[in-house]
Amino acid sequence: MREHHIGIITKNIRNEISVYSKLGYSAITDIIYDDIQHNYILLLKNKSSFLVIELIEPADVNSTVYKSAEGYHHICYEADSEDEVRSVLKKRGVGVVFSRMIKAIALDNRMVCFAMLQNGTIIEFVINSKVGTV
User: Are 74 and 5 in contact (CB under 8 A)?
Assistant: First the structure.
């Protein structure tokens, strides 16, 4: 597995764009509405780094992050399958998956799931294949 992005919650994506642009980041997507998780998403990338930042703005009270504080939310890793995710977590004894697999609109409709590490840190896993090929 390798790192895919870091998720950061914000109350207003448009206000954050200028902050991250001053750090060398530029948008690699438009602002996308995710009607599954009820969030607005924008992906940013820094040319001098592998790091992708996912800005997440709650769209309404049904948002998966509506009650979450602004700032760091999760780190996302790529995996080849849901079985790989569960196997790695079990083998290393560090956490458990707490969500079902869902389609991530902003990640090219790939499937994702979320896990909670024993220390309370949220981890997202994005599966390398697209919907319909999982």
Answer: no
Distance CA 119, CA 94 (A): 8
Amino acid at 111: M
Assess contact for 109 and 117: CB atoms under 8 A: no
Residue 124: other Cβ atoms inside 10 A: 21
Q: For residues 64 and 87, give the distance between their C-alpha atoms in angstroms, rounded to a whole number.
A: 26
DSSP secondary structure code for residue 66 in this structure = T
Dihedral over Cα of 103, 104, 105, 107: its sign = negative
* 19/124 Cα distance (integer angstroms): 24
Q: For 8-33, write each residue's pLDDT tens digit.
A: 999 999 999 999 999 999 999 999 99
Contact 44, 26 (CB under 8 A): yes
d(CA 104, CA 101): 9
